[in-house]
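Researcher: I've got a protein sequence and the SMILES for NAP. Could you write out the 3D structure of the bound complex as structure tokens? I'd like something to compare against our soaking experiments later this week.
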Amino acid sequence: MKVCIVGASGKLGRYMVQHALDRGYEVVGVCRERSVEKLDQFKGHITIIPGATNDRAVIKKAVEGCDGVLTVLVPWGVHQYSSGTAQAVLDYARPDARLVFSCGWHITRDGRDIYSPTFLWVVRIFGWIARFVRFADLEDQVEACRRIFASPTRWTVVRGSDLEEGESQGLPVWSQHVGDPILESNITRRTDFALFMVEALENDQLVHEAPAIVSCQSSSAIAH
Ligand SMILES: NC(=O)c1ccc[n+]([C@@H]2O[C@H](COP(=O)([O-])OP(=O)(O)OC[C@H]3O[C@@H](n4cnc5c(N)ncnc54)[C@H](OP(=O)(O)O)[C@@H]3O)[C@@H](O)[C@H]2O)c1
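Model: Sure. Here is the predicted complex with NAP in place.
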């Protein structure tokens, strides 16, 4: 299997590269030019295409011939980075390729997620301040996911809980809706978020799903 990892130099991205190599996949990574050195540990084992992830020419080249594309969707900046990245992947990946995107719980697919008032306030205040200082645009990440959900491609959008570093605890468990009791612990190891993304490539049951994930060893996962 040949996979492209868009946003490979970030924390989540590097974990995904490692999991993909562990499975024997051929890996093509896309990251900003200035971040290429963050992938030095994989030198000789992966192909790197430097460039902005919302540069359509960069994505077109990177996803060519790939069976799967793993995309880290980030809301940074106010120049449609997230939606531009998602659109390029949707447009240029092979029609039968497995596409797996990352985001957080704040994204809702069908409006049936139940959020705590605190969560909603944090998202609202962070979103407003981030946009005001032109640091990030959460609305653009929402737009990116809207386009993915409307796409006929073989997509999965993995919605991460709060994240922490540490050794793997195993494949996270998931639910269709935030607010379900199994997700109550709201914590996942970042390496396991990456594991879930890579495993999703070969799990057809996750096609056209937006799983919200939580650590399989969290108290809510064990209880439910
Ligand atoms: N952090 C959390 O608690 C959390 C919780 C739930 C879900 N998530 C989701 O997890 C994913 C990644 O989260 P993460 O915290 O693990 O971060 P990460 O893996 O470090 O990812 C950050 C990514 O953003 C890129 N980036 C940083 N600044 C940028 C800029 N100004 N312009 C363009 N790209 C920029 C980085 O590229 P460079 O290497 O080039 O800097 C890297 O690819 C996202 O989809 C996020 O929605 C995160």
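Model: The two ends are 35 Å apart (CA to CA). The chain is about 35% helix and 20% strand.
Researcher: Great, I'll pass this along to the crystallography team.
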